[in-house]
Amino acid sequence: KLEYGLKRLSVGEALRYVLNNQPDTELALMLNWHLHKGMTAPDELAIEALEISLMESICNTAGVIIDGYPVTKHQTSLLEARSIIPMVIFELDVPSKEIFKRLLLERKKKEQSLPYPLHNSTQITAVKNSHYHKNIDEIRQYYQEQHQNWYVIDGFHSKWWVWNEVIKNIQMVNKYIQIYLENIKAGKAACIDNLCITPQELISRLGEFGQFCPVSLAESYELIDCSVTESLEFAAEFRGHYYKMSSREKLNKFLENPELYVPPLAPYPLPTADMIPKRLTLSELKKQFPKCAELQGYCPVTYQDGKQRYEALVPGDIKYALEYRNRIYICESNEKLQKFLRLPLKYWNQKLPYKLPPLKEPVIDHKSLWERVVREDEEISEEGAEEDDEDIENILEDEFPKDEEMMSEEDEEQETDALERLRSELGEKYEADMSNLQGIQLSEGETIKPIENSQNPLYPVIHRQYIYFLSSKETKEKFMKNPIKYIRQPKPKPTMPIRIAIVGPPKSGKTTGDKWHARDLEVFVGGMKELVKHRLREKMLQGLERKVGRDWIWAELVDYVKKSLSGGYTGATMVAGQ
């Protein structure tokens, strides 16, 4: 204050200035009305008195230091509404223990000779300190976000150290202001950092490139979005518009030759909004359903940077999704996402090769099959089951009125049969009838292939509390679209076992060939030896049932072999169906 000729001003001094120098004004009368009733002056009147005190000539020429204000968020809003914005705000960070220590030392030096107590007791200081720490975080956040003019000074040091730190920051801000005014007056570009520019003012005065770096766009046609940071460290003003750069190097280039990076000399204009890639959040990505991602979800940046090799096909992560030209792309990492956002023309138009990596689907055995089933029954089973039960009860009441005394055993049997018939129509019976068959192929008139083969993957679906097994993804998708079409069909007729005979001279390949055919057709294969063993097991079982001796079993087996040999089956292989 004394060294630089600034005026020290507190809210109390501003109120006393109005009461002493302007006692007949409306503001002074309202202040006296509150004070005479023993109330504190409202913040609105205090801000108005502060604004009048700031109109003094010394405040407009040398400057002013506002002491201890604001201390609440409401006071901050009132200052903002009156356009009272300090160029620099210093927060003295002092521990509470140090505050009370200094208070005790100060009270020892000064003798209390006044007849009334002062507001410097330990209790009053504790209340003030608690109130200050309760509100200071919100005030600090506001000024840091809106004006970037908040500086924290470690007040634990001596007053001379604090003074040097304050002077250093003031000189830095003053230098920025002087350079800005000189460059703007000369028609040059000027940095706008440390000028208390709000985000709203920045957006209202943005140039033709918005918050994209004009230097990167002109030199390498990179779309670097600078809106991710609120700092104005690399922002500049030229011809009444604001421009944000991505680095200190880009800022220096812009300050040296701003005409090269703005119209009409700028080599490239900013693309339209639909031609600028936009990052998608998970909620925004869900809203794009059923639109599919390009490149089947593989990362376009990894694929392009890997020279479109097979090894460069890496699936993307949905956390790093973006939209460009009404298409969705999914990148592998945040680094790859930023590359696509900067250079979309390099990565957007690609085609996948014919050969793709296999899908990473875990092989699930029958034991873990139930963990794989989609729990659709949790959503619809309760509602669907209740509807089915209501339908059954309504039909039964129409056909068989409930009168237990009048019902005979024949009526009860008919009711049971009707109940089974109705439940079969609703799908319950097909859990047993079609559990080993494919309802899709049966409905479409194709060959029914058994699916109870451990080598074939199963695709189970739950519909109305019942499980249906499908043999492929295609049949599963058909079933999911229209399940009623495939479960409400007549039970298939039983098929006859397939018996195929393959004949040929020894070493002609009949044994090897029939094994391949049997595996494809899922049937039993066996030569004469296997048939004899099979026949022996049958005769032994018959012998046990008839309680006859082994002589009968042996006689039956010899007779079977003689008939087989006389039939010419020595050079043949028998293939029996299931």
Secondary-structure blueprint:
Layout: E1 7-9, H1 11-21, H2 26-36, H3 43-53, H4 57-61, E2 64-66, H5 73-81, E3 89-93, H6 96-109, H7 122-146, E4 150-154, H8 159-185, E5 190-191, H9 199-204, H10 214-220, E6 235-238, E7 241-244, H11 248-256, E8 278-280, H12 282-287, H13 300-305, E9 321-324, E10 327-330, H14 334-342, H15 344-347, H16 369-372, H17 377-399, H18 409-425, H19 430-433, H20 439-443, E11 459-463, E12 466-470, H21 473-481, H22 483-487, E13 499-503, H23 510-521, E14 524-526, H24 528-546, H25 550-566, E15 572-576
Parallel strand pairs: 1-2, 3-4
Antiparallel strand pairs: 5-6, 6-7, 8-9, 9-10, 11-12, 13-15, 14-15
Helix pairs in contact: 1-3, 17-18, 24-25
Describe the structure.
48% of the residues lie in helices and 10% in strands. It is mainly alpha-helical. It folds into five domains: 7-171, Rossmann fold (3-Layer(aba) Sandwich); 172-270, no CATH class; 274-347, no CATH class; 369-487, no CATH class; 499-576, no CATH class. The protein has a three-stranded antiparallel β-sheet. The longest helix has 27 residues, at 159-185. Mean pLDDT is 77; it is low at 362-382, 426-438, 445-455 and 567-578.
